[in-house]
Structure formats: C-alpha cells, structure tokens
Amino acid sequence: MLLSMTGFGEARTQTDTLAVAIEVRAVNNRHLKLTVRGTEPYPLYEAEIEKVVRRHVRRGTLHVHVRVERASQSTIPTLNTVALAGYLRQIRAACAEAGTPEFAAPLLAGALALPGVAPEGRNGSTPPDEEWPVVERTLDVALTKLNVMRRDEGRAMGDELLAHHRTIAEQLDAVRVLVPTVVSDYRQRLLDRVRQAIADAGVVLSAETVIREVALFADRTDVSEEVMRLTSHLDQFGELVRKGEEAGRKLEFVIQEMGRETNTVGSKAGDVSISRHVFEIKATLEKLRELVLNVE
C-alpha cells in the first residue's frame, strides 16, 4: 500500500512525575528532514529522536513538538553561593587596589556568568535517563497515529493514480489503433496530389518514386517501438502502485520515462489525431507527477 508523506499524529502519557505530549506533523520532501521543538532539553537531542522517527518514516519533512511537564522538579536553580561570594570579594578588592572602585558595580553584575556559580545545562548526547523511556514510548505512539493517516491518504492517492493509469492506457490504445493508418493515409494524400499535378501539368511520375517517398515517410514516422516501450512503462507503473511499498522515487522515474516516450511519439507521428491523444497523455502525466511528489 502507498504511503503519503503528509499527515499528523499526537500522543500523551501521564506518570506520577511526568506529563508528556508529543505532536508530529509531516509534509513531503525528497529526503528525511527533522525539526524538533518544545521543552528543554529535547530540541538538543534531535539525533536520538531521529532514530525513533526512522523506525516509522523514510522520507518527508517532520516537525516534532515535545512538551514535558515535570511535577516533582524544582524550578529554582541552585547557585554555588560560596563561589559567588568569593568572586564578589575578589572583584571589590581588585577594583579598590587599582583605584577604580567605580568599576566594581558593572563587574559584579556579571558575576552569575562566572564559572562554577550557576548550574550548567545538560549538554550530553542523550536525553535525560529518567525521562527518555516515557518520551520515546509517547513518540512511538504519535508516529503510529501519523502512519495511520498516511496510509489512509496513500490509499486514496493509489486509487487516483490508478484512475489516471487507466486514462493513459485508453489514450495509448487509441494511438495503437491509429498508427497503421498514418502511412496509408499519407500514401493516399500523396497519390491524390500526384494525380492533380499530372492533370494540371502533364507531369509523368513513376510508381517507384511514389513508393520510395511513402517508404521514407513510413520509416520517419514509425512510432511502434515507442508505443511498445510506453506500454511497458505503464504496466510497470501500475504494478508499483499496487505493490505500494517505498514506491515514490521509482514512480517518479517511471513517469519521467513515460514522458520521454510520449514526447517522441508526438514529434514523430505526424498525424493530428495521434497528436490529440498524445496531448491527453501528457496532461495526465502532469497530474501523476504532482501526486507522486507526495508518495513516500
């Protein structure tokens, strides 16, 4: 089954000490791109969160918002008062000794930023041990819900892709019917012009000349090989849509190849009726391209 690259999932977990809420929003992208926002320190741990995301998602831009409320955590940071008092004494003494006591006040204002005074934030490579298992489980649930939405949208996209597939197949069948008539119609038009020229000017034209001209036209406008390849690509496209797993990039490539063959048919065929069908095929391929951009 196809997976869309757009969707939304959310999950909440409540424990005795934590309330975790996570929202995940996904949009299309050729690669996997992750953005993490929310309660500190989780925006710093994008690498750890990405490991969880990759279990569920392979392509797309994901915005993950993590909210954590810590019921038992004190909100007042603990200062090293001994170190702070020592810094203050030294600053005042140094300014007095230098004869510049007026410099003491601005220097004292920055004392909290001196090493060892205020507690430093976490800067490790992994999330807090006591919280991460809860956050990870909640993220897994949110991503599972995201995938439910992605599958639902992917199912609808698959139906639409197959409807366009049938449209192209119908137009291609019409082209296949018209291809043998192109040469015979050209031969008839050429003979009509020759007869008119002979009638008007008494020109004598050998049958070999007419046959050679028709043969050159037939060789120049023969699109049977292109129609065969386009049919093969179309069959491959339908198979990929029905199979569905990680089909996005493969579908993009097949559509590109179908576009090349369609352009060749349009430029070589030399027939107005075929050109009309080629136009419809190209218009439908554009619709396919837009849809497939959102397939994982």
Overall structural domain count: 3
**Overall shape:** elongated
**Fraction of residues in helix:** 55-70%
Arithmetic mean of pLDDT: 82
Low-confidence stretches: none
Number of helices: 8
Rg estimate, integer Å: 36 Å
- Give the helix/strand class: alpha+beta
Order of helices and strands: EEEHEHHHHHHH
SSE topology sketch:
Layout: E1 7-14, E2 18-27, E3 32-38, H1 46-53, E4 60-70, H2 81-98, H3 104-109, H4 132-201, H5 207-221, H6 224-243, H7 248-269, H8 272-292
Parallel strand pairs: 3-4
Antiparallel strand pairs: 1-2, 2-4
Tell me about this structure.
The chain is of the alpha+beta class and 296 residues long. It has 3 domains: 7-74 and 126-151, Ribosomal Protein S5, domain 2, CATH 3.30.230; 83-113, no CATH class; 154-292, no CATH class. The chain has 8 helices and 4 strands; from the N terminus they run βββαβααααααα. The chain has helices at 46-53, 81-98, 104-109, 132-201, 207-221, 224-243, 248-269, 272-292; strands spanning 7-14, 18-27, 32-38, 60-70. It has a 4-stranded mixed β-sheet with strand order 1-2-4-3. A hairpin with a 3-residue loop joins strand 1 (7-14) and strand 2 (18-27). Helix 4 packs antiparallel against helix 5 (207-221) and helix 4 (132-201) packs antiparallel against helix 8. The protein is elongated. The mean pLDDT is 82.
